[in-house]
Amino acid sequence: MGLYDRFTHLAHERKQLQVSGINPFGTCIDDIYSATEGRIGTQKVILAGTNNYLGLTFNALAIAQGQAALASQGTGTTGSRMANGSYGPHLALEREIAEFFGRSTAIVFSTGYTANLGIISTLATRGSVVLLDADSHASIYDACALGGAEIIRFRHNDAKDLERRMVRLGERARDAIIIVEGIYSMLGDVAPLAEIVDIKRRLGGYLIVDEAHSFGVMGPTGRGLAEAVGVEQDVDIIVGTFSKSLASIGGFAVGFDDMDVLRYASRPYIFTASPSPSSIASVRSSLGTIAQHPELREKLWRNAHLLYQGLSALGFTLGPNISPVVPVMIGTKEEGLMFWRQLISLGVYVNLVLPPAAPSGMTLLRCSVNAEHTEAQINSIIQAFSALRK
């Protein structure tokens, strides 16, 4: 058997979808003009598939502070913090994130994926039980597999199913780890966190919430879903990323005093090079902007309502609730690819999501809005989708 023979079916499927037209599996955005506009080939496009929720990728202060760090501290750290030591800004960012969340401990990782891998795989080891939402991100599944924990999936956003499975565990439920997300990245729906916290209070367990897509987006100060529903003190660890609202690259976890010990046990933390100085500087700047400018969240949600309501009025089947992630359900993979290419020709770039990345075998045209989109741009996106109907 050849080294790659087991991927033949996958390669054939991808080749069939790449015939005649822009390749959706490795799209080249040739120019980025702003947080909302770019160019693919000769076509200028509105960027409506970026996760850049607060539109901070071109924030002048973040760029200036990133450039200053690049000039004064160099291009990279060239090693892990455990081996090479931490730079002062790494420690400063951890203090600032902990303070932002009102927690005592924060750990910064090199990516959001590594944050989940580093925290979950260290806690969810052999003999541990993890109950996770069936639609959890790949990094959560991979973290559980790396740690060797027993994985019990409960139906997506079904607190009653979680409770049934907890009850079956008996005494083991007290030490189980429950993992959910804030906003789910494909359908834009949110976890029933208040109900899950109620189950935890009655049956025990430890709760980890991945706020990757809800940080900066939900809650009075932007801390995420746990803040929005008033259950932060019942969440043991919050994990997040720098690559969405914070407009950079990296990840973090926040918890209480005891969490700091994970630095000395987490292999992904110990053996991964630490984030570059410019990334840390831009994240610190963006964190300050999120704290000081709640109007960005207000604008984001106005845009989310405008796009959701506009696409719904056209008769498209969308996600279950309004959020900055607006998925449009499409019948087949072939139809999804055709529509995706047509949207680019109409000046709109969204994400084409095919099974198995999309849940339940669906094909999605996944839109995401940000605070920098103008009302005119949102209307242009709606008009492009209207043209698909014709």
TrEMBL record:
Cofactor(s) the record lists: pyridoxal 5'-phosphate
Limits of the Aminotransferase class I/classII large domain: 44-384
Enzymatic class: transferase
Name of this protein: Aminotransferase, class I/II
PANTHER family per UniProt: CLASS II AMINOTRANSFERASE/8-AMINO-7-OXONONANOATE SYNTHASE, LD36009P
Organism: Citrobacter youngae ATCC 29220
Keyword Aminoacyl-tRNA synthetase: no
Family under the similarity heading: Belongs to the class-II pyridoxal-phosphate-dependent aminotransferase family.
Alphabetized SUPFAM superfamilies for the sequence: PLP-dependent transferases
Taxonomy of the source species: Bacteria, Pseudomonadati, Pseudomonadota, Gammaproteobacteria, Enterobacterales
Keyword Transport carried by entry: no
NCBIfam families reported in the protein's UniProt record: SerpalmtaseBetaP (NF047599)
Enzyme nomenclature, EC number: 2.6.1.-
A matching Pfam family: Aminotran_1_2
Keywords: Aminotransferase, Pyridoxal phosphate, Transferase
Recorded GO MF terms: pyridoxal phosphate binding; transaminase activity
